[in-house]
C-alpha cells in the first residue's frame, strides 16, 4: 500500500511535486519502506509522468530497495553497477 504526502513545485524541463516528508510503502517482497517521492510531469500537458522513489542512505528502506534491485534480471540490473 502506498500512502502519499502533499505537493510542491519544481523547475527544469518538467514540473515536480515533492511529497511532504516520506511516504510509507508496504511492498509484498521487501516489506515496509519509508521513501521520499518526487513526481515529474512533462510541461507539454501530455499527461506523461515519472514518479521517483528514494530512500535515506544507510536506512533499512535503502537496504530493502537494494534487495529488490538484486531480483531484477540482467547482468547490470537495468544499468545499475555490479555489486562485488
Q: What is the N-to-C order of secondary-structure elements (H for helix, E for strand)?
A: EEEEEH
In terms of structural class, how would the helical and strand content be classed? Answer: mainly beta
Q: Specify the number of helices.
A: 1
Secondary structure tally: strands: 5
Distance between the termini: 32 Å
Mean pLDDT: 75
In the predicted model, the low-confidence regions spanning at least 5 consecutive residues are 1-14
**Approximately how much beta-strand content do the residues carry?**
35-45%
How would you sum up this structure, described in words?
This protein has 84 residues and is mainly β. Helices cover 13% and strands 36% of the residues. It is built from 1 helix and 5 strands. Strands 1, 2, 3, 4 and 5 form a 5-stranded antiparallel beta sheet that branches. The N terminus is likely disordered.
Highlighted features:
single chain, 84 residues, mainly beta, globular
Summarize the structure.
The protein is mainly β.
How are the elements arranged and paired?
Blueprint: E1 2-3, E2 14-18, E3 23-27, E4 31-42, E5 49-54, H1 60-70
Antiparallel strand pairs: 1-3, 2-4, 3-4, 4-5
